[in-house]
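2024-03-11 09:14:02 INFO queue: dequeued item 11933_t:CDS:1, len=158
2024-03-11 09:14:02 INFO validating residues
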Amino acid sequence: EIDFAFLKAFICCGISFSIIETPFFINALKLLNEKYNPPSRTTLSTTLLYIEVARITLKMNKEIKNLQNLTLAKNIIHSKYPFIMTLPCIAHQLHLISYDVCHLPYTSNLISKCNKIVFYFNKSTLVGSLLNNIIKDVLIIGGGLKLACKTRWTTYYD
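2024-03-11 09:14:37 INFO prediction written
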């Protein structure tokens, strides 16, 4: 199991398999567990890699099969009951719509100007403090001004 953990770590971190055979790395491993014998770089790059690829492929095939079954079930329901509409995830659809709307020239320009205003209030300690006091006095919920960013499509709503 630890051999596969090393394999994944080396691949995901872009570490050369040859590191596993360096005296410094072997010494570090022996300090952690003197009975552990690490695999060779050849074993890592062939046998263990092939086993892991096979494991991942089986997992992917299982996921794809489930997806195909879901699509097949949806098609059967639609052919049997044409009056039933299948709708995708509404939150995802709203995200796509808001993304498209926010990239229209007018909206994009407006968001850019709003971001400049928010940046000004966040950068200026005095003005930002005054704004926060007003927000608390008027009981505005939401915690103040937020910059719009790609990963938070709800910031356009906030």
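2024-03-11 09:14:37 INFO annotate: The helical segments are 2-13, 23-32, 41-80, 90-102, 105-123, 125-137.
2024-03-11 09:14:38 INFO item closed
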